[in-house]
Amino acid sequence: MLDPRALYQIEADAAASLSGLRPAMIHLFDGYIDAGMVNHAAARYLLEVCDHQVLARFDHDQLHDYRSRRPQMVFDTNHWAEMIDYSLLLHQLSDANGKQFLLLTGPEPDSQWNRAAAAVLLLANELGVSQLLTCSGVPMAVPHTRPTLVTAHATDPALATGNPMWIDRVQLPGAFSHVLEYRAGEAGMLAQGFVAHVPHYLAQATFPQATAAVLARIATVAGLELPLDPLHARAQANLAEIATETASDPEFAPMVATLEEQYDQLAASGGASVPTAEEIGAAVEQFLAEQDPPDEFGA
């Protein structure tokens, strides 16, 4: 393997300011299953509401397949006026109380996953990171009118208890975030993730209610004070929009009522419902098949 350290450059002054702080590192990569745009929206929201600066830059040119995801170009009259390229950046952020944490965000690497994961873990050790955290959304048969269910996973299974559904052993296509968490576990580093259950009929749309649910879980385990009120307001506005847009659909209300009944039964049983491996795999495969061409990931 080529030296993983050659994949990134650190801003020395910014890194020095983290000495002894043991910050959490949140990693959110675009490019894999992201029902409700949970992953993408969480990254953008954190950069929107938290003071931040770039702490490290990855040489993403080594990791990116430009023929798979091409940069957006702006042609103006008779010349190329703008290029929106891809970047993989580690940001240093401050929460509402000034507590420092890190956010690694950008497109999921297309190649050199083992080397890239090793680079992230080396960087985490160099910066004294206390834990790795991530989130995502998956399409599930749940209603948008109930609180978002969240499934946790962790390198320490004791930290991932109380999930709303019991899932037995299942094999799925992996994401880079999954590989990173797995490698972190091998290295003895704590890593956790939170998966929002997004209504399957909203999987292709932004669902801020789910984003708020996973960010709240991340804030709790990382001891962060994140300003989530604006996100909750967006969630309420989104629910109102859904109600308006579906008011004339005679099939929508009965479908939601059925899902509400299933949800309430699950809540009453304490999470006894067990989706089969085939059901989980089918939901993931259907979601992947319905994906539109990837959006641009601006620098």
Kindly provide the name of the CATH class.
Answer: Alpha Beta
Reading the helices and strands in chain order gives: EHEHEEEEEHEEHEHHHH
Strand order of the largest sheet: 1-3-6-7-2-8-10-9
User: Could you please say which CATH topology applies here?
Assistant: Rossmann fold
Alpha-carbon distance between the two ends? 28 Å
Structural class by helix and strand composition: alpha/beta
Which radius of gyration do the C-alpha atoms yield? Answer: 20 Å
Q: How many helices does DSSP assign?
A: 8
Would you mind describing this structure in some detail?
The protein has a single domain (4-63, 87-289), classed as Rossmann fold, CATH 3.40.50. The longest helix has 18 residues, at 229-246. A hairpin with a 2-residue loop joins strand 4 and strand 5. The protein has helices spanning 12-16, 38-49, 113-126, 176-186, 208-222, 229-246, 252-269, 277-289; strands at 8-10, 24-30, 52-58, 72-76, 79-84, 89-94, 100-107, 131-140, 150-154, 191-199. Residues 272-277 and 293-299 have low confidence and may be disordered. The two termini are 28 Å apart. By secondary structure, the chain is α/β, with parallel strands linked by helices. The strands form two sheets. The protein has an eight-stranded mixed beta sheet with strand order 1-3-6-7-2-8-10-9, sandwiched between helices. Strands 4-5 form a two-stranded antiparallel ribbon. It contains eight helices and ten strands.
